[in-house]
Amino acid sequence: MKKTFRGGTHPPEFKLTAGFASQKLPLPEIVHIPVTQHIGAPGRVIVAKGDEVKVGQPLTEPGGFVSAPAHASIAGTVKAVGNYANPLGKEMATVTIEGNGSDDWFEGIEEDPDWQSVDADEIRARVKNAGLAGMGGAAFPTHVKLAPPPEKPIDTVIINGAECEPFLTSDHRLMLERPEDILEGARLVARAVGARQVFVGIEDNKPDAWEALKQAVGEKNDIQVEMLPVKYPQGAEKQLINALTGREVPPPPGLPMDVGCLVQNVGSCVAIYEAVRYRRPLIERTVTVSGGGIKQPKNVIARIGTPFARLIEAAGGYEDDAAKLLMGGPMMGMSQWTDIVPVIKGTSGIVVLGKAEASLAEENPCIGCGRCVSVCPVFLLPTNIARLSQLEMFDEAEELGVVECIECGSCTYVCPSKRNLVQHIRFGKTTVLANRRKQAQKQSA
Amino acid sequence: MVSPNDSAPDSGATPEKPEEVKPEAKKEEAKPAQAEKPAASAKPAAPKPVPPKKKEEAPQRQFMLSSSPHLRDTESVQRIMITVTLTLVPAMLGAAWVFGMRALMLILIGGAAAVVTEWAVQRVFKMRSTVGDGSALLTGILVSFNLPPGVPWWIPVIGSFFAIAIAKLPFGGLGWNPLNPALVGRAFLLASWPLHMTKDWLPAFWWKLPGYSFFTWNVSPSKLMVDGISTATPLEVAKNALKILKNPEGNPTDILATAGDRFAEISSRVIDMAVGTIGGCIGETSAILILIGAAYLFYKNYIDWRTPFSMIAVVAFGGWMFGGAEGLFTGDALFHIFAGGLILGAFYMATDMVTTPITPKGRLIFGVGAGLLTLMIRMIGGYPEGVSYAILLMNLTTPLIDRWTVPRRFGHVVKAADAKA
Ligand code: SF4
Ligand code: SF4
């Protein structure tokens, strides 16, 4: 039997773009680079309007340990520093650069011939300088993950190639196109934290990717490439750890390192490899542009800061009935009100849904079928927690573990009564967390 | 690159806009539309949702906003109810074969009465009509399945009316009813018209007897009795046999012999009971046809194996242990499985989603509890059959069971031994 986790569901895969090589997007003439694309302290902007910048030039200075710099992704002139639309749902501090058409790189970004022998501290330093932050959604600065406290040693590194979201194939393509680079990145991660084993987890709807990585590992045999059954949310950190090692990460604030694990996405591995070997900052990434509302779904390699509209154009533009624009996949992606928002480090895909796909169903009472209970990967009782949240009975919801919900949306997906379970639960979760913060503030005051 | 929660614990919710958190926000139109409304409000600084910096890039398209997930399974309540109803068709046709057209008519009358009741009540009280979800039809059919085949036509009408108008809608309709409506309907009928409900049995294939035809409607169960054909159901026979044993009058060897004969007789008819060519309620005679339907429900994952199997196992084991004439462990387990409404009850009533627990462990407990109660009623209670009361009683405990069986949550464990390494 293949390894997997308990719970989960199987939405239709819609992997329309898996068969096509990723296409490099022409240099955009304008990019909007949000100053903060990670969780943690915001950076300080070190360029001003009118400055000339080159590709890879730092635009910000990290604002602390848990912080990552942003870099210019094209060469040109800084046109504005100010607030701009952001795919994470708010306006955020953004540096806008108008390109000069050239692709001049910032000095010092060159290959290190001795890259194989750099030590753990140097790996972390280069990763930090490169501004790496998780590339699978909400983004934690990578160098922080690479620096576990000494009392929490990491023995297992897990490379996340599950890509369980429908439509998305950017990781799949990366595994086919750059398997060696992924493995090199994985080895660097293992070296940085001193892990003794490395797993790559791939869902079995991507046998070619599994094959490619298996082959790339070859005789060396230092990395175990594992096939996992297709199941959502296999790509969720805790579920992937559970599937591959059987360990269960403790509930929040528990972290993977509490069970000796570290998870990196395949895209991050490539970026780590480039950061260490070439000292290259993260200035571009593979993005899936797909969905029923897109004319020619495809994967593109786009510079960070490129407006969504450019990528959609490259994918043939919108179908007439395009109704919903998402950053990320349809299970956890965020709906966007406009396509002027830029690609950020965590943009794994842009999915446009047609009218039919996007339609919202009317909510009916729970019929107690228990489907939400059986799919919840955290073993919660979604129907009860959702109802308690609706009734604003937050203490009771907290008792049932509302804050442990990973917001994977499986419960809402399967509910035959079309209840907006995770939406209610999210409301409860944010409220409980806000109350906790208030409490903590009161106590410290 | 999907990593739900690829981050610090508190982070998941932070990027969400506060508006998106509100689950009620159903069909938020794209924000820019609001910017165009006349600024009649007193507030001077109307919030500008669009960063006006790049005029030339102003969005031409408006997109729907909602919070994830943006994909829904095609499964719906309606589809579940209709599928469950369709899986009952084999048993319906079987009932028609054994009990004639009359049985089929009673089923249709029950179903129609339930649908009409739901429609009418919701209309009178100006409630949203839910007739379309198919649950009323299913309830009505199940009410009829629990009737003796010789009852007059108004029995299923009253049963269905009671099930829908008293046991379901006043509680808020589908999803809110604490008790299985079909079983409440049956219990009401049993209490109000006990004679019809316990004496209107017809022997299998009565319509083949001289003077009757497949389409015969008017039939008098008592007349058939007079004609010398036993219409007693197997469970009644068994109960009488036990009674003889318990209240011995006359020669003890005779008593044992009589009881033993009766048991031998019913045991020899287990096959008939499984196939359904024997007396009993309309829908519960043929275990095999019901199992065919239930198999499909398993395949579709509409019912959890835990409830029916634990319930049946408990009844079978208990029947084997206590149900025999010659002491412990001489009972006939198969007889207890196929007798009466156990199969129908276990697969179609004890698995009713609304009135049974939602947790896996809870469903197991529910099944065991319903099995034990069935046994107790069969063995020591006043009614020959206890399945429906057993399930109704367990329905009452459902909220409690759910509360007791909250599952262990992910990560709440002693760390795996492996993690120390
Ligand atoms: S309750 Fe949370 S973790 Fe569980 S299925 Fe729903 S969204 Fe996923
Ligand atoms: S999936 Fe929906 S209908 Fe089923 S138990 Fe959960 S909330 Fe209720």
Structure summarized in a few sentences:
Chain A is α/β, with parallel strands linked by helices. Chain A has helices spanning 120-129, 142-145, 170-177, 179-193, 207-217, 237-245, 266-278, 308-314, 355-358, 371-375, 382-390, 394-399, 410-414, 421-444; strands spanning 23-24, 30-34, 44-45, 52-53, 60-61, 76-85, 91-99, 156-161, 197-203, 223-228, 261-265, 284-290, 298-303, 322-327, 334-336, 349-354. In chain A, helix 1 (120-129) crosses helix 4 (179-193), helix 3 (170-177) runs parallel beside helix 5 (207-217) and helix 4 crosses helix 7.
Structure description:
The complex is a heterodimer of chains A (445) and B (421). Chain A has 445 residues and is α/β, with parallel strands linked by helices. Among the domains of chain A are: 122-278, Rossmann fold (3-Layer(aba) Sandwich), CATH 3.40.50; 371-444. Chain A is built from 14 helices and 16 strands. Chain A has a six-stranded mixed beta sheet, with helices on both faces. Chain A has a four-stranded antiparallel beta sheet with strand order 2-7-6-4, with no helix packed on it. Chain A has a four-stranded parallel beta sheet with strand order 10-9-8-11, with helices on both faces. Chain A is globular. Residues 1-59 and 415-421 of chain B have low confidence and may be disordered. The interface between A and B is large, with 125 and 83 residues. The complex binds iron/sulfur cluster (2 copies). One iron/sulfur cluster binds next to helix 13 and helix 14 of chain A. Residues 366-372, 382-383, 414-417, 419, 421 of chain A line the site of one iron/sulfur cluster (SF4).
